[in-house]
Amino acid sequence: MDVAGKVAIVTGAGSGIGAAVAGGLVVAGARVVLADLDAAAVHGVAESLGASAVSVAGDVSDAAVIQTLIDRSEAEFGPVDLYFANAGIFGARGLDGSDAEWAAALDVNVMAHVRAAQLLVPGWLERGAGYFVSTASAAGLLTQIGSAPYAMTKHAAVGFAEWLSVTYGDKGIRVSCVCPMGVDTALLRAGTESSVAAAAAEPAIRAVVTAGKVLSADEVADEILAGVAAERFLILPHPEVLDMYRFKGSDYDRWLSGMRRFQASLES
């Protein structure tokens, strides 16, 4: 996949990984529609990228907003070639989360991907080409200490990306699934710089920052775009995640025991 001349949509592009991916795409010669709930932030990022980028503010778990993104892409640049389902939320901590918190995590982290695919895949099948990039998490291959909704929905995001690849991979549609560990984002900084925020987010934030190196959004974007260029399904900005995943599969009970010990160390 050469992204030069292609048209892409990137969600969650007002900051962090999404903004960095959008910037990398423009540098590589793509034209991009950026989406985010934060209208001012996403507009600012799009303006900084010049004529090859435009922005749309809205909730990308809403099918009507996704359709607006597609319509804007077609009006400004042409049919959508790549969709980066990057927007995500952390959700509640555990079983005490409300139904609304669980529903929000499922909507943004999973159903936003499903709804985008429902709108894009028919056209991609007609044209014989398309690329869906799902930003999941290492939590989708392993788990997330401290947040049941995040762990569950990121597993589901990986599962949906797998299904898309199996179902449409021989019909011209490429799929990648991005599974990083810690990334320097606003959420992570809030949890490490403020004692109040850290207390509210623990042990989830501590699990992220102690599990491995925290990468910059630019570093992760570089890995994503390299993975797309290679048309690689599993994109791992933290390559050690593959070893962890293999260990998990080789002895599930031992892995669970180790995760419980890790959790206990964080809580102490």
From TrEMBL:
The keyword Lyase does not apply. One of its GO terms (molecular function) is oxidoreductase activity. InterPro entries: NAD(P)-bd_dom_sf, Sc_DH/Rdtase_CS, SDR_fam. The keyword Oxidoreductase applies. Keywords: Oxidoreductase. PROSITE patterns: ADH_SHORT. PANTHER family: 15-HYDROXYPROSTAGLANDIN DEHYDROGENASE [NAD(+)]-LIKE, 3-OXOACYL-(ACYL-CARRIER-PROTEIN) REDUCTASE (AFU_ORTHOLOGUE AFUA_6G11210). Belongs to the short-chain dehydrogenases/reductases (SDR) family. This is SDR family oxidoreductase. It comes from Nocardia uniformis.
